[in-house]
Every structure is written in C-alpha cells, then in structure tokens.
Amino acid sequence: MTDFRTLDDAGPLQGKRVLLRVDLNVPMEGGRVTDATRIERVVPTIREIADAGGRVILLAHFGRPKGKPDPKDSLKPILPTLSEKLARPVAFGEDCVGEAAAKAVAALNDGDVLLLENTRYHAGEEKNDAEFARALAENGDLYVNEAFSAAHRAHASTEGLARLLPAYAGRLMQAELDALTKGLESPARPVIAIVGGAKVSTKIDLLENLVAKVDMLVIGGGMANTFLHAQGKDVGKSLCEKDLAETAQRILTAAKEKNCTIILPADALVAREFKANAENETVTVDAVPSDAMILDVGASSIATIDGAIDEARTLVWNGPLGAFELTPFDTGTVAVARHAAARTKAGQLVSVAGGGDTVAALNHAGVGEDFSYVSTAGGAFLEWLEGKELPGVEALRAKG
Ligand SMILES: Nc1ncnc2c1ncn2[C@@H]1O[C@H](COP(=O)(O)OP(=O)(O)O)[C@@H](O)[C@H]1O
Ligand SMILES: O=C(OP(=O)(O)O)[C@H](O)COP(=O)(O)O
C-alpha cells in the first residue's frame, strides 16, 4: 500500500484536531452493542492518536436514516461500549456539523476523544455534497480514514473529506487491505463464496462480477429469496425484493456463462413470526406456505453447502444464511461456520469472512478466531474482491 499516506506520514499530532472516520455500524439489540468487533478493531488507532497528543474526533454512520435525524439510529447508545473498550472517557457531540459539533470540538484538550452524532443524519453525507463535506472539514486539521468497511461508499465522510484535508489511511484500513491482498490475491482453487444477509438491493449487483471470480457461489439468507422468486417459487412473506427478479435472472445466466456453480437452498426453516423460538417447520423451497417466512436454510441445504466447502480450497463469506440472532434460525449459519472452521483448522481451507453481522454470527458460533482472516467489512470486502476501486480508498491515494 505504498501509494497511501498513513499515520506514519502525518507528522506530529500534538494539539491537532484529527477527524477519524470509523465504522461503528455494529449489531445492537435493546440499545446495547451485541458484537463489539468493529469497535475493538479501531481502538488501537484511537489510542495511538490520543497518546500522541491529537484531539480525536470520531465520525461515523449508523443504520440508514435517510438524511434526517432518527433516534433509532443515534450513535449515543454505542458510547458506553466505546468508552469501555478504549478504557477512557469519550465525549459526545449531538451533531456532526454546525454549532453543536464546533462547541464539542472546542472543548477538547490534547489527547481527548469525541464522538460526533451520525453523519447520515444529513442528506449531504450520502450525496457526497461538497458543502456538507466542507462543514465536516471545518472541525479538523487532518483526516484519517479507518472505515474500510464503508470504503465502498462515496460519501462525504468517506470520500469528499479526503479531498479537503491532508488525508491518511488508518492502521485498520492498512491492515485490512494488506490481509485481503495477501490472502486472496491468487487464491487456491476451487474458490467458494457464500453471500447471504439482508442487504439485498445494495449487494445483488456485485454478484454479477463475483461469478466470474469464484467457482461456486452459495446464495443464502434474505438474498436467496429474491433468486427463488426469480425462479418462479412462492416465497410467502419472506424478505424478498421482487423488483430485482430480472437482476437475479441475469446473475444466474452470467454464472452459467462463467462456469460458476450456483447453490441455492433446496429446503428452508419457515415461521410465521419474526421472533426467537417462533413455531417453525422445515419445508422444501417449492412448498413455502404463503403466510410464512423463510428464516433459515434447512438441513438438506446445510449438507449441500458443507459438501461444496469440502470441494473448495478457499472460502469467502459475507452475509448470514438465516436470521441468526433468533434461535433456532441460527442453525444453518452456525453449522456451516463450524464446518468451515474445522476445515480451516485442519489446513484444508483458507477461509475469509467479513461484515458487521457476519462477524457477529461467527462469534455466536464460537469460531470467530478459527477463520484464516475475519474482516470488519462485508459489502466493501465483496466489492474489493470483484476488483472494483473503492472510493474511500481511492481518495486516499497520494494525498497528504
Ligand atoms: N432469511 C432471512 N430473513 C430475514 N433476515 C435475514 C435472513 N437471513 C439473514 N437475515 C439477516 O441478515 C442480516 C445481516 O445482513 P447483512 O447486513 O447483509 O450482513 P453483514 O452485516 O454481515 O454484511 C442479519 O441481521 C440477519 O438476521
Ligand atoms: O455495515 C456495513 O456494511 P456491511 O453490512 O456490508 O458489513 C457498513 O457500515 C456500510 O453500511 P451501509 O451498507 O449501510 O452503507
């Protein structure tokens, strides 16, 4: 990563206001952080800057609040976990721009840490609006991007800001790119990818390029339902983006052309309520009751996926196979994660997984330490794998 400026190039940080873009989009339940991996991975950089006398101003997004404040997407509930992991106090600014931000920043002493409220509370963030980026830049002397997992977004705090201030890659940004390059630049074949999760519309397009890069593609989670629908199956009340059926068809055709084997669930665990221990049954994907939702892959699908992993030498995985936060709909994700971990430990597989919820799912399965590499990034990791340039990374090149 020699074409980046890194923290090593930033000069003395004493007294400098450092706008540090991090990804705090962590899994939460009942107002509490349920997986702190993304926080833990940025702690060393925050400490490093603060210990050098810098004033750390954390910029981050949470959820998708559509450009206006929404209390359910506040970063405030993350503060206790952030402060605990950092083992130091963290101040909070009620807005990331304007008077509230300026006041909070002005109150900082050298070595202090401040978290500003969700950047996505402003429409200018996702539009990468120049004026909004300038408003963010007003509070900093330099910019450090540590949010590899949001680097596929050309937003004001991930891209625009890097063009306004001296910009540097943070330690995690560097480490992620180094690890992925080392692990996956020329992967041992066959390569299997598992893509699941719930962010169907923002991730489906990248599958078209992915099928050219991998030998087998397992489509699970909410993502699978759109494909099952595209194949003419009734998915009942399942999470499904019906208007993406054509895109799904196109991906299936591209896979055939590229000789990539697509593995879709053949059976599923369905329920009528989205809650833990909801009454459930296993059905084939041709027989999903119209009032039920697919919440996990079934036993026969798990066996097929495990068998495919046995044939592979490299696995890349983003997106849980089911609603793993709710038992028993964690069964598929846990079983496949443990199988991949065992193959990895036996030296038969290189396994790379990433994504906020995917990491939480691996930790839930007790195998977070057993994969070859666990990235904080999901969508960004897949786009990197596609060979796409990531706007957040590109904006850092040759800046400083
Ligand atoms: N069949 C399904 N129906 C509804 N939600 C699902 C299903 N399968 C997976 N999910 C949800 O997908 C979410 C994770 O998706 P996503 O954000 O794309 O993953 P990541 O954060 O790892 O990139 C989890 O909260 C999980 O409950
Ligand atoms: O959680 C994230 O990505 P991921 O779900 O792909 O791991 C990032 O914070 C990006 O969030 P976004 O997909 O709402 O832009």
TrEMBL record:
Keywords: ATP-binding, Cytoplasm, Glycolysis, Kinase, Nucleotide-binding, Transferase. Its main location: cytoplasm. It catalyses: (2R)-3-phosphoglycerate + ATP = (2R)-3-phospho-glyceroyl phosphate + ADP. The gene is pgk. Its EC number is 2.7.2.3. ATP binds at K203, E325, G355, G356, D357, T358. Substrate binds at D23, L24, N25, R38, H61, F62, G63, R64, R120, R153. It comes from the Bacteria. It is an enzyme of class 2 (transferase). Pfam families: PGK (PF00162). It is found in: Cytoplasm. One of its GO terms (molecular function) is kinase activity. This is Phosphoglycerate kinase. Pathway: Carbohydrate degradation; glycolysis; pyruvate from D-glyceraldehyde 3-phosphate: step 2/5. Belongs to the phosphoglycerate kinase family. Monomer.
